[in-house]
């Protein structure tokens, strides 16, 4: 998943258009069809376990956790483009400041796995309650240990709570 592969329809609903690490999961047998190469997709968005070959390729949960990592990066991109206190950052992809524009596996492995770097959270976000909540959420998508990352359901519930608090702010104005 990367931001340019998320399509938005006129109702504001999003659809993921490119599934780089797509797998087929057969619920009745709990079997997986992972295809030929587990290392397809945009390197910049790859989770640590994909970059260092430690992903459990026979476990469906592993692929979900990889998606959570990438989702956290997409949230970071969205948050950077959100105006707060009249400020907004220019568009930049994740890790723009530490890897080349077309990073290699080795570039990303060094930054994400060895150095354990994460995208920078601008200080301005912490003066905005919504961006503070989003920053906390994305950090919980970026744990080095995949099993420590948030689940999709927890993310959905947290985003719903954030959205509801925004609705309350709008109603109070």
From TrEMBL:
Q: What is the membrane topology noted in the UniProt record heading this document?
A: Single-pass type I membrane protein
Q: Which residues form a coiled coil?
A: none
Swiss-Prot/TrEMBL keywords: ATP-binding, Glycoprotein, Kinase, Membrane, Nucleotide-binding, Receptor, Serine/threonine-protein kinase, Signal, Transferase, Transmembrane, Transmembrane helix
Under catalytic activity, the entry for this protein gives: L-threonyl-[receptor-protein] + ATP = O-phospho-L-threonyl-[receptor-protein] + ADP + H(+); L-seryl-[receptor-protein] + ATP = O-phospho-L-seryl-[receptor-protein] + ADP + H(+)
Q: Where in the cell is it found?
A: Membrane
Class of this enzyme: transferase
Give its E.C. classification number: 2.7.11.30
List the record's Gene Ontology CC terms alphabetically.
Answer: BMP receptor complex
Domain Protein kinase intervals: 1-166
Q: What is its main location?
A: membrane
Please provide the Gene Ontology terms (biological process) for this protein: heart development; transforming growth factor beta receptor signaling pathway
Quote the Gene3D superfamilies the UniProt record gives: Transferase(Phosphotransferase) domain 1 (1.10.510.10)
Per its record, what are the GO molecular function terms? ATP binding; metal ion binding; transmembrane receptor protein serine/threonine kinase activity
Q: What is this protein called?
A: receptor protein serine/threonine kinase
Similarity comment: Belongs to the protein kinase superfamily. TKL Ser/Thr protein kinase family. TGFB receptor subfamily.
What InterPro entries does its record include?
Kinase-like_dom_sf, Prot_kinase_dom, Ser-Thr/Tyr_kinase_cat_dom, TGFB_receptor
């Amino acid at each position: 998943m990367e931001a340019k592969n998320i399509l938005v329809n006129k109702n504001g609903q999003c659809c993921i258009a490119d599934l780089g690490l797509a797998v087929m999961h057969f619920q009745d047998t709990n079997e997986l069809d992972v295809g030929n190469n587990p290392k397809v997709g945009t390197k910049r968005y790859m989770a640590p376990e994909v970059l260092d070959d430690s992903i459990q390729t026979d476990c469906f949960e592993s692929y979900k956790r990889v998606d959570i990592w990438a989702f956290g990066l997409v949230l970071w991109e969205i948050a950077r483009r959100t105006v707060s206190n009249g400020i907004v950052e220019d568009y930049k992809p994740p890790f723009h400041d530490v890897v080349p524009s077309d990073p290699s596996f080795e570039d990303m492995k060094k930054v994400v796995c060895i150095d354990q770097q994460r995208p920078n959270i601008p200080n301005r976000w912490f003066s905005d309650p919504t961006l503070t909540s989003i920053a906390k959420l994305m950090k919980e998508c970026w744990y080095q240990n995949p099993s420590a990352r948030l689940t999709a359901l927890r993310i959905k519930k947290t985003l719903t709570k954030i959205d509801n608090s925004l609705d309350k702010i709008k109603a109070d104005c």
